[in-house]
Description:
The protein has helices spanning 2-18, 34-47, 66-79, 108-125, 130-145, 181-184, 188-195, 215-225, 248-266, 274-283, 296-301, 319-332, 350-358, 379-388, 408-419, 434-447; strands spanning 56-61, 84-87, 99-101, 104-105, 149-153, 170-173, 205-208, 229-232, 291-293, 310-313, 338-342, 363-368, 401-404, 427-431. It is of the alpha/beta class.
Amino acid sequence: MAAAAHLAEAYAACVRYIFSNADFSSAGRRYQKPVENWRRFDALLEKLGRPLQHCKVVHIAGTNGKGTTSALCDAMLRASGKRVGIFTSPHLHSFRERIRVDGKLVSKEAVVAAMDKVRPAVEAVGDASPFEKLSALAFVCFARAEVEWAVLETGLGGRWDCTNHCEPVVCGITRIGLDHMNVLGSTVAAIAAEKAGIIKKGVPAFCVLQDPTAAPVLQARASEVGTELQVVHEDVYHDSLPFWLSPAHQRMNAALASSLMHSLAARGLIAEERELWQHACETLFWPARFEVFAPNLFAAANAQEHTPPSLILDVAHNVPSVQALLSSVSSMYCDAPLVVIFGANRDKDVKSMVQLITNQPQLRMGVAVLSSHPKGSSVDEIISFYHAACTFHNPDDASGKWQAAGSMLEALQLASASLHSDRRGGVVLCCGSVFVAADMRATLADVEPELFDPADWVFENRNEPHLLM
């Protein structure tokens, strides 16, 4: 008992230290001196002995789909018999989701042991942001675990990102769109220039089909460093994909991951194991990405002869990803009535996302919820954006109107009540923020834990120090 209590306190101290200097009021402040920050983090890695120098790196950048592509690469590398570490962000329930080895969350013991190296090194170089501390922690965890491969997802941008202090064997760039404009630039081209920073001389590079303003920027960077940039098309993916990978934007991410693996196999770095890769994709656990639930709450609220609604959770949190998500729901569920439970961080283009949702022809109702993140947009603000979009609706018609919910459970109840009389069942879509998706999963785990596998990350939240990044 004493040892367990000591570990719990030591781990909590690590968590507090990582996020001790988090600044939620000014997202771009720590990126105002990128060169200085880059040099400082490089000095930190030098103090730590360059922990990634002995493993092969797959590097992924982009606006949307980085996490899915990274997770698929991790799964396929492990299916090929490799020992793999993966670093992604943000997390849903436990910050240890960001650092995984051989498909499992890094242990609390490993976090404490790695932090014993990281903290003195940070103090020696003078300072580090939360993401810099997390990145250093991940790299040390991978070195200690003696992984052969590391799959690194950029945290923000690419050129000045902590993960760009590596020499990858292949890199991939997912779809680029408008997000983090206060840091990366106000145009898709400017953002693409930052993402293109991961393209390096002699390193095979792949990207999905891009916005017309992003594509030439990526090609220019590839030409500048003397590397061929290969564009992946949607027909280059596994024949059979699980339901959560069936939306068009997810198929594109799967195509990119598959192309990266084929590139490694063609160079003899891994074996060509198509059937194993297929199975890895089919069995991959990657929550809140077009994740479908059938809560008993919905079934109980609907008459027996009616089809209960489906609940879909997705971390879509910016205009391009919400647009892609709504398009997928519309095409896959045809004219089924739709209720959208939505919450977002106020540093996003919340107004445009609300307008996209409000303009959905099959929308029955929007439900505004507050994210648990300090930057969460208030429900009043979300509903005010609905009123601004009301020119597309008859104000006397209840269809398409928004309501506020004080909790995720209330949001589910409002959604169920809105659809209970429709024999088609309908769709309840929860999106707008990673934190909203996490809050909804936690609520479902509280009221209907049987919906989840006992090993689901949602249960890690019960014993995790409260985190907000």
